[in-house]
Each structure stands twice: as structure tokens, then as C-alpha cells.
């Protein structure tokens, strides 16, 4: 059986894709004004903008946490802040998919327009003497030239687009959304989303299985998502469901030796020996970096046929 494997600290004390200037039209047919007033607000304690921002995006995704509950997971006292990687890891532990946005203004606006608050990293000072800060974008008004944030102690902070854009650019335009496994980010691309789900699978396999299903609804031919669901069904001792996924995988990707190998194994386990032998031979004929695994599967199936 083949299982596919798939920084700066911020204390609260130019790249491609700048945001549109005041009065400019919204890109991609997006609305010119959006505000997500239902996003919860948590004021930050000293240096703890990371836990506060995380609690806000969690709440919007239906996971209730207080900043105090998240401090131990993400706050590093010696750094007086939180690492980006810790925010992403805490999101996975909450059973949510942390999807990193492309460093483009359109991706940020797409998510907000879809009702998804965006956690962003800003540098509020200078490159040489940075003041890193996490905030949550909850709206924009391209006519007035403003971005609307939950930030620090302010529930509704409006910031001129140019000022926000400079601070965000100095933070590398780093941003992510935290979404439930059933909710595809508006700006998601196939490879990036499936990679985010693969990272979630290491922490929360059940949530990841639901997210892989979301990926397949958007991209039905995605091999990694299909294989992951087949592997998950196999681990749960659901051979018929595993067979269904592996059969779909080889139909869509006849060049995928891993799929042929796993199909052969499940066919063998369920007593379909002739089909198992054919699938195992196909895996070996297709070849690839796991040829030794394919040959071992074929050898085992042939040996069982002799007994």
C-alpha cells in the first residue's frame, strides 16, 4: 500500500499585486464595498495580537476560542510574539484548513467579498526597525479608499489603502484564511489547497477527509485527493469505498502506478485475485520511483495464487 506524502516572529508592539487606488474599480468584477460586521472581535493584550487575530478568524469559521485559550499554543514569551508557523499549526489543531493566500491584492479582496476574514501580517514601522503585527481584514471600500480591520484594541479600524498596502507589503504580503473543511476558499488554486489539506491530514485525518471531498467537488480529477480518500477508507477497513476511490483514480490517471498498486492490494484483500494480478502487473509496467513496492505487491499476489 502506497501512502502519498505530501519566518519571522510577530510581536504586537514592493511585492506584486498592490491594492487598487482610491476610486479604482474592483478587480475581477468584485463589489466595490464589503464589510463583514459579524466577525467577532477580541481585543489584544500586550504583544498578543497573534492569539487575538486567530480567535477572530476561528470564530468566523464556527470554532469558538478565546485569545487566552490560544496563548499557550502560539505565543512565544521570549520573542514577545507569535510565529506564522504556529498560527497555521494551531489552525490545523482546531480542525480548520489554513489556506495561505497568493501575495496578491485580488486574492485578499476575493476572500473578503466571499465572507472570509483574512488574517494578515503587517510591519507598522520600518524595515530596519520593524514592528510586526497581526490583524484581521474584515472589509474594504474602494470608493473611499479604505481597508477595514479588527486590529489591536480597535473593533473597526479604517486605514487608507496605500498605508495598509505598504505595511502589508513590508510583511511579505503574508495572509491566510481559516476555513471549515467543507468551505473552499474563494481564491483557492488546486495544488495549493490540496497541499494545505495534506498538512491538515497529519493533525486531523477526519477533518482532512472532509476537506479532500471539498477539493474533489472543485477538481474531480485531482489524484492526490482521490488517493488520500482511498487510503483513508483502507485504514478504516472499508474496502469497497477504497476500491471505488482507487478505480476512479486509475480511470482518470492511467499513468498513476501508485493507484494501480493500491487497487491491486485491495482487490487481493477482497478475493478478486484475477483483477488484482492485472492491476499489480499494470503498476509494475507503469513503473516509477516506488518500483520495489509494486514488485513486492505483485510477488505477494502471485504467491497467494499458487497456494
UniProtKB/TrEMBL annotation:
A UniProt-annotated Pfam family: Peptidase_C39_2
TPR repeat start and end residues: 223-256
Statement: the UniProt record of this protein carries the keyword Ligase: no
SUPFAM superfamilies, A to Z: TPR-like (SSF48452)
Domain Peptidase C39-like residues, every copy: 38-142
Alphabetically ordered keywords of this record: TPR repeat
Transmembrane segments: none
Top-level taxon: Bacteria
Protein name: PA2778 family cysteine peptidase
